[in-house]
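Local shape tokens:
==================
===
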Amino acid sequence: MLTRQPWDVVVVGAGVVGAACAYYAARSGLAVAVVDRGPVAGGTTGAGEGNLLVSDKLPGPELDLALLSAALWRDLAQVLPSEVEFEQKGGLVVAADPASLATLSATAAGQAEAGVKAWAVAPDELSALEPHLAPGLAGGFLYPEDAQVQPALAAAHLLRAARDAGARVRLGEDVTAVLTGPAGAVRGVRTGAGDLLAPAVVNATGVRGGELAALAGVELPVLPRRGFVLVTEPLPPLIRHKVYAAEYVADVSSASAALQTSPVVEGTRAGPVLIGASRERVGFDSTLSVPVIGRLAAAAAALFPVLADTRVLRAYHGFRPYLPDHLPAIGPDRRVPGLFHACGHEGAGIGLAPATAALVTAAVRGEEPPLDPGPFSPDRFDAPPRTWG
């Protein structure tokens, strides 16, 4: 069995989070190897819509992470090729009735205190932003910092930039063991093609994050949360922003395992409209759910009546890596020295990837992190619940 030269860090996972970790670590001067059992963006990243959102984050640690990531994505957009399709189109969150609008207003007020830009939109102003919206809505909020990217291409180009900085990428190699020394510290990983030796291993395996943690002898309670997306036929430009109902924010933060749907609609540069969003915990069941597809289509048509007669060309699903407290696991695992986690972002991994990578790189290098990493501690599930003021 081949044992490859020692590295400073091995990143397991070639989705957008792993790609970002490789990019920032390699750019910092670390010798980086990336390994994935499949292709680039072969998991959750490839099934994502590419949302880079601050609007759906409640005030607290995740919103702080999202704000940092939004700034980093804007920087990345200046150095990555234009084909990653970074577009700061803004998000428009709409309320159907006064009660929903009151909840949305309270959320926006709390977000504003954390530094989020959000502008109230009166009912008679909605049509100026989105001419095809259904009439009779109670109002909404516009979030100009919300953006979108083509996720698979973003991951691929981040990895290419990491390779340009000296990283090596190994695809189609399944990690079968996390190697540790006599004192229990990490010393690399084992794959079917040989060992990759390093004093640091980053778990960026998304919904499989719990499985890789188990290989290192620790528990990380990552669960898959299934979601479907509909893709329409190509259309002329109809929808200018990412538009979603106020109830979407509650669905994102819900702990329910049951099916939840709320309309999320956005256009793409290529013409098709993307329609979501659904959430349910059904394990890795990949069965096409006709009732879910029907609910998504009906909700989108109610929000945008112009879509009622539009053909849906395909539907696809993905599995979001869910953790019980809705916060990702980022940083060192004190139970296994040298093991770092970067997973459990649920549906926000694409948006949060750069900030996650910045935290992980700082931790690996022993440097000051760009924000407080405490709330994201991977071993927090072994401790009493953390509260925030």
Observations:
- Residues 188 and 197 are 4 Å apart (CA to CA).
- Residues 384-389 have pLDDT under 50 and may be disordered.
